[in-house]
Structures are given as C-alpha cells and as structure tokens.
Amino acid sequence: MASAEAKAHLFVVFGATGDLFQRKLLPSLYRLATQKKLPVGSRILGVARHPLDDATFRANAVKSLLAESAGTEGDLRAFCDSTLFYHALTDETATGFGALRGRLETLEKEQGLAGDRLFYLALPLDGFAPTIQGLGEAGLHASPGWTRVVVEKPFGRDLASAQQLNGLLRKYFEESQIFRIDHYLGKETVQNLLVFRFANMFVESLWNRDRIAQVEITVAERLGVEGRVHYYDESGALRDMVQNHVTQILTLVAMEPPATRDADSIRNEKVKVLQSIAAIRPDDVVRGQYTRGERDGQPVRGYREEPDVANDSTTETFVAIRLKVDNWRWHGIPFFLRTGKALPAKSSRVILTFKAPAVSFFQEEGEYDANPDRMTILIQPDEGFELAFEVKVPGREIRVQTERMRFHYADVFGDLPDGYETLLVDVMLGDPTLFVRADEVEGSWKLYGSILANPPPVAFYAANTWGPVEAKKLAEEWGHRWDRS
Ligand code: BG6
User: Are residues 224 and 78 in the same domain?
Assistant: First the structure.
C-alpha cells in the first residue's frame, strides 16, 4: 500500500530448500526483480540445514524457476548468479548463529550493502522458536540499518502457542519489526474489500443489519492435500484456513470504517470485530473429511487413502461455521463461514443476501421463486463483484426474473499481481497494513479455542461434492442455503 521507494537490503530466507521458498517466494522475488520492484543491489541469502554451496543452490534455484516458467534459462541464471547466496546452518546453537552473523557481515561488505536486513521464516511451526531465539541471542535483531522479521503461517496451533511465539518475538523485536504474513491479505480482491465498502456510498449504506439478512464467506478448493500430508494431517482445515485466511476476510467484511488509512487504525477495527464474536461453540461447527468420490468420470481418492494418512485419521478437510458478530452494525445477523478441499470448484467469495422487501406484491404463492437480492464479492478466481436483482420479464403479465450485473477485474486491469509479490514489497517498504498484528492473531485463535480443544466428530463427504449434509443443516437451521456456484 505504501508508495515510498524500498532500499537495497539483504533478504535472508530460513527454509531456503523448502517448498514455499522454491515454489512461491523465489518466483515472486524474480518477478519483482524483472519489474524493478526488488531494489537494485539487494541480495538473497538462503539459509537451511543442507550442506550446499552457492553454486549448487543457484543451480537448484534455476530449476525451480524454470518449473514455475518464470523466465528464460539465460535470464534466470543471470539473476541467480548475481543475487543468490547460501549459508548452511547445520548447528542451531549460539555458535551456529554466530557464524551466520559473520556470513551476513562479510556478504554485506562484499556486496556493498548498508546493513538493512529482512529475515523471512519460511519454516514449519517448530522451526520458528529456535530461529527467533538464535537470531536474538546472536544480536541479529538489530543492525546498522533496519531489521524486519517475517513469520509465515501457521502462527501457533492455538492461543497458548501463539502467545508464546508472540512473547518470544517481543523479547527481541519491536512490533513494528514483526510481519506476520497471511497471503490472502496480499490478494487485490481482499484489499479491495475496504475500497469497495468505504469508497462507495451505495455499498456502505446497505452494509448493515437493516438491509442485509445474512453473510456467507466461502473459500472452496478443488484440490485435495496434494503431497502436504505431513503438515496438513497435524493441522486440518480449521488451523490451515479458518483461523487465518477465512477469519481475515470476515474481519474486513464486518469491520467499521477506520479513523484513517494507517495500519493501526485498520487493525484496531479488525480486532474489534473479533472481540464482538462469542467463542464458537461445537454446535455451531461442522468438521468434514472427504471420502472417495468421482470427478469427470475419474475416481478421486478419499483423504484416508492419501499416502501417509492413517486410515482412521480424524483430521478435517472441511469446516462450516455459523456465528454472529454482536456489534451495533451486525447484531442478530448470521454469518456463515465455509472452507474445504476436494470440493467441486476453486471459488472464494463473500455473499451478502439482502432482506426481502417488506411486502412482496409481485409474487403469489406457488407462482415462481422470488430470489432475494445478493451482492457477491468474487475473491478468486474470476475476480470482481456481482449484483443479483429482480427484473420484470417483458410482457403483459407481471413475471419477475433474477438478473446479474457484473464487474470483472480482468476486463479492466488484465492479470492481477500475485499476493506474495504485493506483500514482499510491503515488507521491503516497512508497511505493516497487510500483515497480522499480535492481538489479531491471538483474538482469532481465542475464537476457535473450544473447538480446537474439543473438536466435534468429523462428518464425511464424497470428494467433488459441497461438503457433508450436516453443513447444509447447520446453515438451514439459521435460515441459510449455501451458495453452489
Ligand atoms: C494455504 C494453505 O495457506 O492456502 C493451503 O496452507 C491452501 O492448504 C492455500 O491450499 C490456498 O491459497 P490460494 O491462494 O490458492 O487460495
């Protein structure tokens, strides 16, 4: 969001041989370099346990970039040779981090860098604490320039572990140095929620309990776990998607206008939303898991049939939740959240259903189905927004039909930037607006605490269907039917 110029710095990635760096961060950094958004002269130091040298790390990076079809081999090689370096952190003790500090200082001297440093923790959860501690104890929380630390998700497993992690971060770093990443906040359509709401009078004047009957937030995925079983089976959809991505969308949808556009004003309002929601009770949640199904005539295996998943695993791959945001604006209005893997479509959307007109004299019982008006924010794919409303079908008889007005980003702006690219530039600029503050992450874990501690049993759904029948009932009991598009 900021428009200042970022400065040349050392971008240090922990977990540099891992999937996230190779598949997401590296291609994003390369694209930023080609767009001149990676400040000229910046260097990337990959850190991991593997004993590699710079040359092998660079050769592997070229392969990863080619696999993501990021550019021509010659261009990729030139980028990797000039920008990438590697440090093997085989020993995570003070000695190991002391050696890392030495490497940083030497590299900065050789490369003419002033000491601005970004530490990106692209690590599994259990790697965060030793790395933060190692950095802090080696004095790497401060430098001759700025120092920032980016922490990937999952930020803890529950409230207690998130508080512990925040406590450790605060021991060495100021909150302004800490960037907790949620890549959904980098998506243009998620950022646009604020512009859509607060720059358009027609939207904001309708966005409340007087006009809206219910709100649905769906983040549906077509793919199953796809080779991430070890992480996913420990995590499940509630930790993997709901506590972070879905809850971030919820807070942006439900928040009040911030006093200003600065990071803290916006985050204060998001926190207030979390404070206005009562802790979710098990009766208001359905956890689901996909079983064997069929797509395009081909069998799709069930979650328990995935390699390395126990045949009695109770990890949820689907979650549906109903809740109320008990503040002035939304009192009494139900919100329905849903996410899942192996569903029929990849589709993330927010749907606001309007209340019915006070008197419906265009409809007589049994004549036709009157559909309530709906405003849909299409987060991905097919980004944009859609308004569904009723029109009269021409003719002497009064017949009413639902039509749609649509806005598609692609028609106006072409391809949208990748969320990671946006967020990386923001960290380089030191703009925390699109990052999650400590109290936000804790507030979100708190909300789901009782379900995490006592998860309701999993209900099953066939892969390539819209989740278990229990999720349908959960919504219907509060007068809602899930969207099927
Ligand atoms: C990640 C989750 O954070 O988000 C994945 O760990 C999920 O399980 C992914 O597939 C979805 O991201 P996107 O941007 O493809 O919607």
Answer: no
